[in-house]
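Hi, here's the filled form for the chain we discussed.

Project: internal
Contact: R.S.
Residues: 454
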Amino acid sequence: MKNEQFIRSGILSLAMFFSIISVSAQDASYTLQEAVDYAIKHNVNIKSAQLDAVSAEARIGEIRGSGLPQVTANLNLSDNVIIQRVFLPANFADPNASPDAPPVAVQFGVKYSGSASATLNQLIFSGSYFIGLRAAATYRELASKSVTQSKVTVAEAVTKAYYSAQVAEERAKVLDLNIARVDSLKRETEIMNKGGFVELLDVNRLEVQINNLITERQKVQNLIELSYTLLKYQMGMPMTESIKLEDRFDDLSIEALKSEFSVTAVNYNSRIEYSLLDTQFKLAGLDLKNIRSGYLPTVSASFGYGHNNGRNSLPDLFGTKWFNNSVLALNVNIPIFDGFTKKYQVQQKKVALDKVKLSQTLLEQSIDLESRQAATNIKNAYATLETQRRNVDLAKEIVRVSKIKYKEGVGSNIEVINAESSFKEAQTNYYSALYDFLISKVDLSKAKGELYHD
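And the returned structure, exactly as it came back:
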């Protein structure tokens, strides 16, 4: 009786536990699409990629800014504490001085001097600058596609974690039904035992079966908690928040997915990885043009305007007239010979361009292989799922027949227990096959480039 009370109290505790979870999670219910959308907004990896895009915009602004007018100002106030003397021939000051007379030490300068000036520099022509402007849009495109790639990766991880939690919950529901069914059978067997129709050993066998089911139920519950933890991690959700899955397997039309099993030609551009390589190819081409533009001259102009003054007393420095000065310059830098530096730089950039082409070819082959593998895997997963579904139906029928035979006295208790074990195993295999099918579906969608779009 103590064991029976323990089992029934355990079942009641589990039921209360799940009802509490259900109530507490009512305000945080997510469909799969809502979970993905939440992750797109809160996942740390996506936020990091978005920061990289912001940094890319700042880099583009830096490139543009280098071609705008550059203005600098300079202010200077000097106190010549000890003015340096310059030695001049003696006849410089006295034409009648002897040629052998010692030189005269003369101070050239004043104690205080000041200057104020402003300079304007403007780039007129630079091949590298104009190539940089062309590369700015491509650089922005690369940053945007990197963010999209992060979103695809996160969407894949969230979808798989969502399906994992879904399957674990369905397994828990099935085990709860199995526990209730075997417990009901045990109570009926106890009544038959009291009437002398069956042995106590039959009751004990069923009790062992229930204990094993409760143990497995606890393991599945731990798996559910782990699946929810992983899902919240992938979504970027705080672990302290509760979450409930709104989608149900009843809403999933497995039959409708058969049309996806066929292998069709994949549009490479639909894969973000290929699109990224295409953008990198554009950047590599612009990088090559940038090196070649180094053979062109660079033209710039500058204009400076300022005032200066010098006096032996500080009040006189600011109290007297300052003198103007101005300069206008045109600068032309013509490269003539650089020791073949740019020649070898061009060779390196050509190699880099060829490597990107090879990477594109390799990625095309990988996409073809991945799509065919995904299509094959989902076919196999569907076939396995159909087999396991039939096994569940057969095992359920075997349980029904074995119970009837046992109650009518033409079957044994062991036969019923074996049938229940086989039924539970068939259900476990079914949900394992269902999970494999769902994961294959995600892999196929990713291979086709259809998993996530902005």
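Let me know if anything looks off before we file it.
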